[in-house]
Design goal:
Elements: E1 2-9, H1 14-22, E2 29-36, H2 43-49, E3 54-58, H3 64-78, E4 82-87, H4 96-108, E5 112-118, H5 126-143, E6 155-158, H6 159-165, H7 174-185, E7 189-195, H8 210-217, H9 219-245, H10 251-278, H11 285-313, H12 318-341
Parallel strand pairs: 1-2, 1-4, 2-3, 5-7
Antiparallel strand pairs: 4-6, 5-6
Length: about 350
């Protein structure tokens, strides 16, 4: 069984050639290098790379996701002998020995997604350490699966997965996160092997844009935020409106009617949007609805208790109290929905 070694490269250094040289005499690997619009200044490096690899070239920089998908498409169409694919970075972060270990694990688990997971010990740039820590937690909530290194570029997968991953959306770094979400949602097994954490010159060769690419990677939590904002806006308006219509009731009764009535409408909207757009979990509609109803009831109880404390006991204005309570409950709702409401037991890892 041969393996397509996919290496997307944008303005690479000599580390690319050094990595390819290690595979020069290994008949089990077919390297595929993608020049992602590096420009004429890097022609010499890519000409040398073409001696040891199939070379694909983009005239302009299209992004890491596009480069990987083009290489996968090339492997599917031109390399029928390759039943496995491994993606690796061109900047020297992935050692030859670790690539072999990931390949060996994939050979024994051809239906799994095998990941080379860094442990971020030693001299690791702060932005990389914190970036991975945040992404790890967001991914666990969004997918219901636990992976230590969600941003690793060292991944191995079989031909069936290649056919799925070539159609996963994403042009740049967000593509790699989308692949993990696709694999999790399809029930694919994850195997994570610890590999050495290598950062050369404080990771100066990385083309990861901290703000732009992080926004794309955290799209899931942004979508949840928009869904929650929509539900909160509906809830906020209805609480104030129903409260105005029930002024003749006792304060506690008016508050109860307002909070419960508004929550019934906003929770229905929130459930529908989160299930179909944000989490896209594998839980059945009935079970997801039952778990969401239990969560909504708990949040409603806490919501009313806090509102009663702030508005009636402490005399806070209703608009200010409502805003504070919604902010406090946002994180709780996101975590519980992502991990429990939309995830069936069979696919949690």
């Amino acid at each position: 069984m041969k393996t397509a070694l996919i290496i997307p490269a944008y303005r690479p250094g000599m580390e690319l050639l050094e990595l390819l040289a290690r595979f020069r005499d290994d008949a089990d690997f077919q390297p595929v290098v993608v020049d992602d619009g590096s420009g004429p200044a890097f022609d010499e490096i890519f000409e040398a790379a073409s001696n040891d690899a199939a070379l694909l070239r983009h005239e302009v920089n299209l992004g890491k996701g596009v480069a990987i998908k083009d290489a996968i498409r090339y492997a599917l169409n031109e390399l029928p002998e390759c039943d496995l694919a491994i993606t690796a970075d061109a900047d020297g972060q992935h050692r030859y020995e670790d690539i072999l270990r990931v390949r060996d694990a994939a050979l024994s688990r051809p239906n799994a997604l095998v990941l080379g997971g860094r442990r971020f010990d030693g001299n690791v740039p702060l932005r990389s350490r914190w970036g991975n820590a945040i992404t790890r937690r967001v991914f666990a909530v969004a997918s219901g699966r636990k992976i230590y290194d969600t941003q690793t570029g060292l991944r191995a997968f079989g031909r069936a997965a290649m056919e799925r991953f070539v159609n996963v959306p994403g042009e740049r770094y967000e593509y790699e996160t989308n692949v993990l979400l696709e694999a999790a949602q399809s029930g694919m097994e994850f195997v994570e092997l610890p590999i050495q954490t290598v950062y050369l010159n404080e990771n100066s060769s990385s083309h990861f844009h901290p703000f732009r690419d992080s926004l794309k990677i955290y799209l899931c939590i942004l979508k949840f935020g928009m869904s929650s904002l929509l539900a909160a806006a509906i809830d906020y308006i209805l609480v104030l409106s129903i409260s105005a219509l029930t002024r003749g009731l006792a304060p506690a009764a008016s508050l109860a009617v307002s909070v419960v009535g508004a929550r019934l409408v906003s929770a229905t909207v929130n459930f529908c949007v989160n299930r179909s757009v944000v989490f896209k979990g594998d839980e059945t509609l009935g079970r997801a609805l039952a778990k969401y109803a239990a969560l909504a009831a708990c949040i409603l109880t806490v919501n009313y208790a806090l509102m009663h404390l702030l508005t009636i006991a402490l005399g806070w204005p209703l608009p200010l109290a409502k805003l504070l309570v919604e902010l406090l409950l946002f994180t709780v709702s996101f975590t519980v929905q992502g991990k429990f409401v939309y995830r069936g037991k069979g696919r949690n890892a």
